[in-house]
């Protein structure tokens, strides 16, 4: 256990400082300053080594949090990264991008600020890379079995690494020009620089995983052809169909979904050619949606030189404290200030979008009204309409599910009532050699769930191919976040 009196000695929560706003908005680098190892160790000492560590339940991966907190405090970096990697293939991703449901479940959080679990996690892996402790783990023998993983987001990459280490020959297919899926093209560099993806890909290639970029399954290779070439196929394509808002003016130029905007922005930062890039430079911008994607759009628009940015959310502003309906240790909905919100723009709640207005086919504004609740439904309040100036409108309203057309046209695969690819308790679809993991089967969710599902699906595929498996199964397809 870490210092048994640590949580009594150090009662304040301290995380890495963000770089000054006027400096960081001039580049695309990570917003955080380097982490102080002494501060990280002190924060790790606050871990209480609880008799029942609820942080395990809060984390879909079942991370061994008290164990590696103790090892960080003792400065045993090699053992710390070993413990972390036992449950998580990519802690540098989750340590930067996960909303940390583990911290919501921290026992200390009952009456003190939670242990900085996410901060400690990313510090462990960065220290390990700096000390050259992260090595490839090539399999001792090959099984002769082949697996195709379609999609190179966190679920696909986690499954591919596990299956490769189990001895299978694994190829990851990605339709974009580089590996990473939404990790690369949906997450701006100020949240996670792409060098962190690149170094993991190098490790995976050294282990034997093969990567096939620029390959759109369903177009360049049919699903039937893929199944004929490989012993098993894993669908890990994510939930990429955006939720639309069908109101007057939707077809005006300048109204775009968030993801194409973010994808183009990320490609531009990486130096890839972008034709007719959607840019916020010199424009008044309105973002619909108050979640993480909206914040990513805000930070991107700020760095592109937007004149103004207004973020609209239809619901109430969340409370800064837990509500009675979301008690500890559930994962609560709380008001958060992301780095992008510190930098620029306005946030407006209880704003119902009524219409996109424009001239000569180009959007010039967004008509909004106050949201009121009638019979439990959110509706625009009559007489409160106003127009917010906008030359660029970004729809960051979430996603409805995976792309279906080519799968439906080229196979008899089934879908559930929510439009996700159907699967049984072993991650298998109705096609015996086809499995599914991540958002494609779960629906839009968190990166930590994607990695957990990728790892679990890999174990199921390994067992189906060989009759047994020693790979861990962190979650089941029926698992859901701990909430009430």
Given the structure, what is the number of helices? 19
According to CATH, what is the class of the largest domain? Alpha Beta
Domain count: the total is: 3
Low-confidence stretches: none
CATH topology term of the largest domain = FAD/NAD(P)-binding domain
* Global Rg: 23 Å
Shape: globular
| Biggest sheet record | 5 strands, parallel
Strand content: 15-25%
- Provide the CATH superfamily of the largest domain: FAD/NAD(P)-binding domain
Known CATH architecture of the largest domain: 3-Layer(bba) Sandwich
Q: Kindly, what is the distance between the CA atoms of the first and last residues, rounded to a whole number of angstroms?
A: 31 Å
Give a count of the beta strands, DSSP E runs of length 2 or more. Answer: 16
> What do the pLDDT scores average to?
96
Helix content: 25-40%
Order of strands across the main sheet: 3-2-1-4-16
The structure class reads alpha/beta
């Amino acid at each position: 256990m870490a210092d048994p009196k640590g949580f009594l000695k150090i009662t304040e929560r301290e995380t890495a400082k963000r770089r000054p706003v006027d400096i960081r908005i001039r580049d695309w680098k990570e917003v955080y300053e380097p982490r102080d190892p002494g501060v990280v160790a002190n924060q790790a000492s606050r871990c209480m080594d609880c008799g029942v560590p609820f942080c395990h339940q809060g984390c879909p991966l079942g991370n061994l949090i008290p164990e590696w907190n103790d090892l960080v405090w003792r400065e045993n970096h090699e053992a710390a990264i070993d413990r972390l990697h036992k449950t998580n293939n990519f802690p540098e991703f989750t340590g930067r991008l996960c909303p940390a449901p583990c911290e919501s479940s921290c026992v200390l959080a009952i009456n003190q600020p939670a242990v900085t679990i996410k901060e400690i996690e990313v510090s462990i892996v960065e220290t390990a890379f700096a000390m050259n402790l992260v090595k490839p783990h090539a399999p001792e023998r090959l099984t002769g079995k082949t697996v195709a993983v379609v999609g190179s987001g966190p679920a696909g990459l986690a499954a591919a690494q596990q299956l490769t280490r189990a001895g299978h020959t694994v190829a990851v297919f990605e339709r974009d020009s580089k590996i990473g899926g939404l990790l690369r093209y949906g997450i701006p560099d100020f949240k996670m620089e792409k060098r962190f993806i690149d170094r993991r890909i190098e490790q995976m290639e050294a282990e034997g995983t093969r990567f096939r970029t620029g390959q759109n399954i369903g177009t360049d290779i049919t699903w039937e052809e893929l199944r004929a070439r490989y012993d098993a196929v894993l669908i890990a394509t994510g939930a990429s169909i955006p939720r639309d808002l069908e109101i007057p003016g939707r077809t005006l130029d300048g109204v775009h979904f968030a993801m194409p905007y973010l994808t183009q922005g990320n490609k531009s930062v990486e130096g890839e050619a972008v034709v007719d890039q959607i840019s916020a430079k010199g424009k008044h911008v309105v973002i619909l949606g108050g979640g993480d994607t909206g914040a990513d759009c805000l930070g991107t628009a700020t760095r592109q030189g937007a004149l103004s940015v207004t973020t609209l959310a239809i619901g109430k502003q969340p409370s800064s404290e837990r509500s009675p309906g979301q008690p500890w240790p559930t994962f609560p909905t709380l008001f958060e200030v992301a780095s992008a919100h510190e930098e620029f723009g306005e946030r407006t709640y209880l704003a119902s979008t009524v219409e996109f207005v424009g001239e000569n086919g180009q959007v010039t504004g967004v008509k909004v009204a106050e949201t009121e609740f009638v019979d439990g439904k959110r509706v625009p309040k009559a007489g409160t309409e106003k127009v917010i100036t906008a030359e660029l409108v970004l729809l960051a309203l979430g996603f409805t599910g995976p792309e279906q057309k080519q799968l439906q046209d080229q196979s008899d695969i089934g879908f559930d009532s929510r439009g996700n690819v159907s699967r049984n308790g072993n991650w298998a679809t109705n096609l015996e050699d086809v499995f599914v993991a991540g958002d494609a089967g779960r629906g839009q969710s968190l990166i930590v769930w994607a990695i957990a599902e990728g790892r679990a699906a890999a174990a199921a595929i390994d067992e189906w191919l060989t009759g047994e498996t020693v790979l861990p199964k962190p979650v089941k397809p029926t698992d859901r976040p701990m909430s009430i």
